[in-house]
Amino acid sequence: MATPTRIAPIAAPAAPISPGARIGHVHLKVADIDRALAFYCGVLGFELMQRLGSQAAFVSAGGYHHQIGLNTWESRGGAPPAPGTTGLYHLAILYPTRAELAAALRRLIEAKIPLDGASDHGVSEALYLRDSDDNGVELYCDRPQAQWPLTDDGELAMFTRRLDLMDLLAEGGSATAAQVEAPLFEPLRNS
Asked: What are the start-end ranges of the E strands in 44-135?
C-alpha cells in the first residue's frame, strides 16, 4: 500500500501537535437521553456501551469505549442554543467507504430524518442533518488522498458542490427519485 503524500499546511505552528493525535470523542449536552439514544443508536446504528440512568450514555462504533458521549448534566429538558450564538457547529462521523455512507443515507430515508444538505467537497462526500437536540451532524466518507483536488502550486483546493444522492444510493442499493427529493430536504436548510 502506498503511503499518502502529506499536504503542506498553509501555516504551520512553531510547535506542531503530534501527527498521531486524533479527536477521540465528542460529548454532547442533550435534553433527553432516551430521545438522543433513539437517534444515535436507533437511526445511525451506534452501540450503547454504558448508560448512567437518565444522566449520561456512551455510544460507539465497533466496540470502542465511546466516540460520542451524551449527557443531561446541564441540559435536561433544555432547548438548543439560539441561532447566532457560539458553540459546536457539527460533529462529523467518518464512514470507511462510500457504500457505508450510502447505507447511512438509506437509514435516514427509512427513519424520515431530513437533511440540511448534501455536498461533494472534492476530498469527501458529506450528508448534513440535525440530531434530536438540533446539534449539527455530518456523515461523510473521504476520497482516496490521490484524488483530492490541488491547485497548480500543490495546495489543497476543496470546494462545495451539490452531492448527487441518487448516485450515492446506487452504491449497493437503490431508491426512487421521490424518496430522495420530497421529505429528505428541509426547505430552509437545503444547501
From this structure: 47-52, 56-60, 68-71, 91-95, 115-120, 124-130
Residues 89-137: pLDDT tens digits? 999 999 999 999 999 999 999 999 999 999 999 999 999 999 999 999 9
Q: Are 66 and 48 in contact (CB under 8 A)?
A: no
Q: Give the pTM.
A: 0.85
- CATH topology match: 25-78 vs 89-191: yes
- CATH level 2 (architecture), domain 89-191: Roll (3.10)
**Domain boundaries, given as residue ranges, for the chain:** 25-78, 89-191
Q: What is the CATH number of domain 25-78?
A: 3.10.180.10
Q: What is the pLDDT of residues 23-46, one digit of tens each?
A: 889 999 999 999 999 999 999 999
